[in-house]
Amino acid sequence: MKATAKAHTNIALIKYWGKRNEPIILPTNNSLSLTLDGYFTTTSVEFDETLTKDQFILDEQVITGEQYERVASFLDIIRKLAGKQLYASITSKNEVPTAAGFASSASGFAALAAAGTKAIGLGLSNMELSRLTRQGSGSACRSIYGGFAEWQMGKKEDGSDSYAIPIAPAEHWDIRVAAVVLSSTKKKVSSRAGMKRTVETSPFFQGWLDSIPQDLTTIKEGIRHRDFQKVGEIAEANCLKMHATTLGANPPFTYWHDTTIAVMQKIQEMRTQNIPVYFTIDAGPNVKVLYLPEYEKIVEETLRSLSGVADIRLSKPGQGVTYL
Ligand SMILES: O=C(O)C[C@@](O)(CF)CCOP(=O)(O)OP(=O)(O)O
Predict the structure, then answer these.
(1) Are residues 162 and 285 in the same domain?
(2) Is the domain of 92 the same as that of 184?
(3) Contact between residue 21 and residue 296 where contact means Cβ atoms under 8 Å apart
(4) 324, 320, 300: which is closest to 312 by C-alpha?
(5) Ligand 1 atom nearest residue 14's Cα
(6) Cα separation of 131 and 124, whole Å?
(7) Exposure winner among 67, 149, 219, 278, fewest CB in 10 A?
(8) ipTM of this model?
């Protein structure tokens, strides 16, 4: 019973930032992302009745400890769903350059969920697959779909109505994303720990939540009409509001480094030179830059020229999860 699946990472334009339920990963707000073609994980899962525990190999390394535990408990959910007490060997390969600051857990859990459920004989719909993937890593549930996807937070406390839905396919709009990889690699607060501290202590968190519904309505309108300025402005403002909440947490923290801010300022300066370009930042110092194909030369050259930039990694809209 073996299956292989491939899933791409995604970049949130309206951020998931806060859980209302941690054990089954239910968010405090809806979020919206674009699946990217440049970064993906390929995962094979083979259930084997002779195994007495799961085995996990990631990029040719045997995985143990916390990362292993997260995968094994995710497989427990799949075993329970299938009603089978079988262990599996999992082999994963990340095309996500770990330094890129992309949430490789997003492509990882989406590929694992797809390969694992297929290998154990569950034929899940994309909705069911997204709902399952959510329990591995929240943002991963959006990677089931290609192009633009919205994770609906749902209202029920059992999570049965919390999963992603497709908004527009990758073919809808050829916009570009450059992940600016900064050389500094200072330890950061994980997204899980960061959102927990923020939810529990930041006075700005409610303001963040209050602003989401309008951001979502406006950005979906912008996507529908391929209005780059509208999408870029909302995405950049939403990211800044998310990061503002961390400054009000106790103890306060930020994911930004000096080079993060330098890249942000350069992006804003390019706009004064009539280059339509916007940024978004996740739970790390790296900046993801949004632009249109006709500006790729000037944008990519400018980003490469900035001090403190180790590399830039380019993406276009990507496809949803596929079985190989
Ligand atoms: O991707 C976004 O919407 C925004 C973030 O990347 C941060 F900016 C959150 C990602 O959180 P994730 O790693 O999915 O958390 P988990 O559910 O605790 O595994």
Answers:
(1) no
(2) no
(3) no
(4) 300
(5) 3
(6) 10
(7) 67
(8) 0.99
Q: How far is the centre of ligand 1, averaged over its atoms, from the C-alpha of 16 (Å)? A: 6
Residues 48 and 190 in one domain: no
Domain boundary among 152, 172, 192: 172
Give, in degrees to the nearest 5, the angle at Cα 202 between 69 and 287: 65
Find all residues with CB under 8 Å of 146, minimum gap 6, and list them: 8, 35, 166, 169, 170, 317, 318, 319, 320
What CATH number is attached to the domain comprising 130? 3.30.230.10
Chain center to CA of 91 = 21
Number of domains in the chain: 2
Domain interval for residue 67: 2-172
What is the mean pLDDT of the segment spanning 236-255?
Answer: 98
The model's pTM: 0.96
Domain boundary among the residues 172, 206, 233 is at 172
239 CB less than 6 Å from ligand 1? no
Cα(273) to centroid of ligand 1, in Å?
Answer: 33
Asked if the structure places residue 324 within a domain, the reply is no
Assign 104 a pLDDT band (cuts: 50, 70, 90): low
Q: What sign does the CA torsion over 121, 122, 126, 129 have?
A: negative
* 235 CB-side CA count, 13 A: 29
pLDDT digits (tens, 9 = 90+) for 185-207: 666 788 999 999 999 999 999 99
Report whether residue 136 contacts ligand 1, using a CB cutoff of 6 Å: no
Q: Is 192 in the pocket of ligand 1 (CB under 6 A)?
A: yes
